[in-house]
Design a protein that fits this description.
heterodimer; B: Rossmann fold
């Protein structure tokens, strides 16, 4: 049972870091242009 | 980008232009690279979702230069109306954040709850309950805000809505669970409370995304009716100013094919003005020196120099704006179906919970147990399925309508559309295309067609564009011309195989015409405004849906009669904006729910006053902002499709309500008897939500 004392905080921390990453992604505008992001990968940058 | 290092930071301006035709990766690359190569442009970035390009450029470049640069790349562009540049999607962002937090918390609490359900007890159970509470309480304080705020504002105004029972339920259940956790009790409903918030937030988020997508779509279409004008100063230099920057006394140069950005008096030049957007009248009005001209009219023939007499809020459009403000009042009082359901639902839920508490007390249970049971009743009846029932169906149908070419601005528009029982059409631009189309294509010998197309291609004049559209759809190949010259006020002349050819201003006074001179002789080309395709089919479909239609037009009786002949519609003609408003008012007081379909500035007040309103994509910016939905393309059929789809949506919404009520009919007695543990509550809640969403997905193809 004492394993729980480590595992629960670790699980929460991992979840929180995922949440923080998502917040960061929203803030930095990564969801501003969903269609554009999908299309941009097709643009060749050979110029 | 490094090539423009000469432009220092403080002289860089940012301009946002709408590029409605951009739709693929190729367009993005072409526009971004093409613009970056233009001297004076630092960078350009296209947003494909909003169809807008943000350009950073030196001050030397003005809006028309940027538009011209994009036109050279093969795309149409127009300045975005000022109000749309700072599109606030803060509401959506806040909802996404709240949903993310609720989702994270729901998962972690569920992790702890599963261990409790699978047999943890004693100190472990207490620890897990406390941990759940530690996660749940900040989450509810943060993610619950949209509900608490809306419930509070409803209560403060003496009303009730869906958020009132949600807020009371969540708060009560959380408080009670906290008490359980602190005193080491067996049941804590933190998982249920947070999961409820999560499901409801997903519904809200979908609703908000739907509105954003439609709004972005409309914003991309929104052509500012007259974004600005080329102003000439005393020394004859020209500068392009936005409509808002124009002042009385300035002199503006209005080229053929441009709209006037302000009211004024003609100083030099003579032309014809198309006032259809302003008054609905289809016949062009000839103007010459000293005539008064109005903002929003389209200059058809030659260039005009106009002295501005009134600009911005003082123009003739201001009266229309004032009428619209008044007319919009009624619609804001509309109560959405979910809130109407909540009016019955909330008292029922609260009465049941209170009854459970009292009955168990009377039966001799302790107040603690009685309170727990009433909390279970509250959480099981919390309108999880009800909260999803409406947005899920509306989002699915809005997506389907979007594919069919109708952008619906919000869910309430769908509800109102389903209730409509009377249709009023505007004529010019709504029943008709609102642009000149070539009538006598057959009069022109086949040999002359390539010449006509080549001449028409070198002009942006509305009539030239009509010729281009007509011949391009006939697969005509343009002839090779030399020495092409466009003379404002006259037309285009050129040489074809050494002989002079021209497309010149027509002499006839009735309607629009041009004269084509070519090697083989002269032909007069006539133009008229045509009915939209599928107009008759749409009217018949509306009739089969039980909606009677009629026409209200600002145009005179004779031209309305010719335009709508064969549609079997009655019409009222010569109507001013106020008359249309009165007509809707009369129908409304006779108990009708009116769909107003119009495009012009003169339809603005009527669009705002109708129970629900639609505008074509070609409508004026005023018309599009006032309408609840915008339909794309030339066909009128999306109007009938939208109404049919809205009705199907309401059927599914009602089914969803019945499912939600049926679920309550089973779950509430169980909760009342004290049989609902947190596990049962969690299962029942997710189960009913899934069924409701599944039912809504049946609407995927509702707009076909």
């Amino acid at each position: 049972m004492s394993g729980l004392l480590y595992l629960i905080p670790i699980a929460l921390l991992l979840g929180l870091s995922g949440l923080a990453a998502f917040f960061w992604a929203i803030r930095s505008g990564q969801f501003d242009d969903m269609d554009g992001a999908a299309a941009r990968i097709l643009i060749e940058d050979d110029e | 980008m490094t090539a423009h290092a000469a432009i220092s930071g403080d002289t860089i301006e940012r301009t946002v232009l709408a590029v409605p035709d951009a739709h693929c990766a190729g367009c993005m690359a072409k526009i971004e690279r093409g613009l970056a190569a233009v001297p004076g442009i630092v960078s350009a970035r296209l947003n494909l979702s909003t169809r807008q390009v943000a350009i950073a450029h030196g001050r030397a470049l003005q809006v028309p230069d940027l538009v011209a640069a994009i036109t050279r790349l093969g795309f149409a562009a127009q300045p975005v109306a000022e109000t749309n540049i700072e599109v606030s999607d803060n509401a959506s962002r806040a909802l996404v954040r709240a949903t993310a937090v609720a989702g994270f918390a729901a998962m972690n609490i569920m992790l702890l709850s599963v261990s409790v359900w699978s047999g943890a007890d004693g100190a472990t159970r207490n620890l897990f309950h406390l941990l759940s509470g530690l996660i749940a309480i900040p989450t509810i304080a943060y993610s619950g805000q949209p509900f608490f705020r809306s419930a509070w504002s409803a209560l403060r105004h003496g009303r009730t809505n869906m958020d009132v029972p949600i807020s009371i339920g969540v708060t009560l259940v959380t408080g009670l669970s906290l008490f359980e956790a602190l005193t080491g009790g067996p049941h804590a409903y933190f998982d249920g409370a947070v999961m409820l918030l999560f499901f409801l937030l997903v519904g809200r988020m979908l609703d908000s995304f739907m509105r954003d997508r439609a709004r972005d779509g409309v914003a991309a279409l929104l052509k500012q009716t007259a974004p600005g004008a080329l102003v000439i100063d005393a020394k004859g230099r020209g500068e392009w100013l936005r409509a808002g920057e124009l002042r009385p006394g300035m002199r503006m140069l209005v080229a053929a094919g441009e709209r006037l950005a302000a009211d004024g008096i003609v100083e030099t030049g003579a032309s014809s003005l198309d006032r259809s957007l302003l008054t609905g009248e289809s016949k062009p009005e000839p103007v010459s020196v000293d005539d008064k001209v109005l903002a929003g009219t389209l200059n058809l023939l030659g260039p005009l120099t106009v002295t501005v007499t009134a600009a911005g809020q003082d123009t003739s459009l201001a009266e229309i704006a004032r009428l619209m403000d008044d007319a919009g009042q009624g619609r804001s009082r509309y109560v959405r179906i979910a809130d109407r359901a909540a009016r019955l639902y909330a008292p029922a839920v609260h009465a049941t919970a209170a009854a459970a508490f009292i009955v168990w007390l009377l039966l001799g249970a302790g107040w603690h147990q009685a309170l727990l049971i009433s909390a279970a009743v509250l959480i099981i009846t919390c309108p999880c399925a009800l909260g999803l029932a409406v947005p899920a169906a509306q989002v699915v149908v809005a997506g389907s309508l979007m594919r069919a070419g109708v952008l619906v601005k919000d869910g309430s528009a769908l509800e109102r559309l389903a209730e409509a029982d009377r249709v009023i059409f505007d004529k010019t631009g709504t029943l008709t295309l609102g642009r000149p189309e070539l009538v006598n294509l057959t009069d022109l010998p086949v040999a002359a067609r390539p010449v006509a197309l080549a001449l028409a291609r070198s002009s942006r004049h509305p009539l030239a564009e009509a010729i281009r559209r007509a011949f391009e759809s006939e697969q005509v190949v343009a002839a090779e011309l030399t020495n092409t010259v466009e003379r404002p006020g006259f037309g285009i002349s050129a040489e074809f195989k050494g002989k002079p050819v021209s497309l010149a201003r027509g002499e006839s006074s009735d309607g629009l015409s041009t004269t084509l001179t070519w090697a083989g002789g002269e032909t007069v080309l006539r133009f008229a405004d045509h009915l939209r395709p599928d107009a008759l089919k749409t009217i018949l479909r509306l009739r089969s849906l039980g909606l009677e239609a009629s026409v209200a037009s600002g145009d005179n009786a004779r031209s309305v009669a010719t335009a709508i002949a064969g549609l079997g519609l009655t019409a009222q003609t010569g109507m001013e904006p106020r008359d249309k408003l009165d007509l809707i008012g009369r129908l409304k007081s006779a108990g009708h729910r009116v769909v107003m379909i119009g495009d012009g500035l003169n339809d603005g007040p009527a669009l705002a006053a109708g129970h629900v309103s639609l505008a074509p994509a070609s409508a004026s910016d005023v018309g599009q902002s006032a309408a609840d939905a915008v339909f794309l393309g030339d066909s009128l059929l999306p109007v009938a499709k939208a109404i049919a789809a809205a009705r199907r949506t309401m059927r599914v919404v009602r089914q969803n309500f019945i499912i939600a009520i049926g679920y309550n009919a089973i779950a509430v007695p169980l909760a009342f008897m004290g049989k609902v543990t947190p596990l049962v509550a969690a299962l029942a809640m997710s189960g009913s939500s899934l069924i409701v969403v599944g039912n809504a997905l049946r609407l995927r193809n509702a707009a076909r």
